[in-house]
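Working notes for the structural subgroup meeting. M.R. asked for a predicted model of this chain before we commit to crystallization trials. I am recording the input and output together here so anyone reviewing the notebook later can reproduce the run.

Input as submitted:
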Amino acid sequence: MKRHIFVSTCEFSGDMHGEVLVQELQKRLPEARFTGIGGRRMAAAGVQLLYDSTAKSTIGFFEALRNLRRLKKLVGEIVAFWEKDRPDVVIWLDSGGFNLVLAKEAKRMGIPVVCMFSPSAWAYGEDRARKLAERVRLLLAVLPFESDFYRKFGVNVVSVGHPLIDRVQSRMSPLEYRAKLGLDPERKLVALLPGSRRQEVARLLPVMLETITGLNDASLQLVLPVATSIDRDWLESILSQYPVKVTVTGGDVYELMAAADAAIIASGTATLEAAIIGVPMVIIYRVSGLSYFIYKRLESPERRVVRPWIGLPNLIAGASVVPEVLQKDLTPENVRAALQTMLYDPEVNLRIRRALQQVREKIGPPGVMTRVAGLIADLIENG
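Returned structure, recorded in token form:
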């Protein structure tokens, strides 16, 4: 019997993980066909896309509201598609707000839902956890503390580890990477990663550049890998406004992280990638004032006490392993103070690297997507 698998993601990182998951499922279920919403990576893996969701990804509650009507329309179109071509399973990767609604429709139609990269119910209260228990057949936990939380609400959850553990590795030595870019092997290198969305870069890159300008260290080497979603000319126009030289690259992010002495990184997937490689970092972030107000209103009291961080390395460690500079505190002066210590004090730099090694060990052994594909195939074949 030819199985029909629907995969849903609205983020660039989800598209990346979805590609690998589809490839692993194809090994287990070679006759299966795949439909869904995602991006070019999933399409390349053989997924028939109903919609390229990564082209319009957004952040923040206020920012997402602008797309609410479009998202409701998309849910309706997907349900209509399911009614004509019913999938055997719906796999939901990230984008909790949208996919939680989609999961409700799937549950109503009797279609089992598997969730990977859950919607941070551990951060924003119990309501989402209860909805997950009602709507999701199986939750695949990628963070070590998620399983215990969700089980309290009756969610069927299996801890699988984070798939970045299999993906994140440098293909060349730090010296080879520096030579490739024409960088001095003796001078300090700082990686700047302001995010993959235009609105992130617009908010965060100027702070990064003002931070470096204030260090007044002409020997520093700066490298910024530009995401494919960002217009390079627009990026260069921002860089031209500051008296610092920045080398802009189109790839080799993991090689950059491995070669860097320190990094300034927008909160998100890149911070976990940096933690796996082991580069000391300052995590920064800022959303609109209204979005932040809503976040804080929704934030659970338990989260504020037990896990008061937003950066994945700190959340996984359960401790402040790397500094976070957020919202109203996000000033060049504050970022500079955090960066200086790890950049110029060898003992601090080494201490952070050792702590990040422990974070790496906590996110599970390799082979994550192989394990995930096995669990999903078993669910399809055996219910």
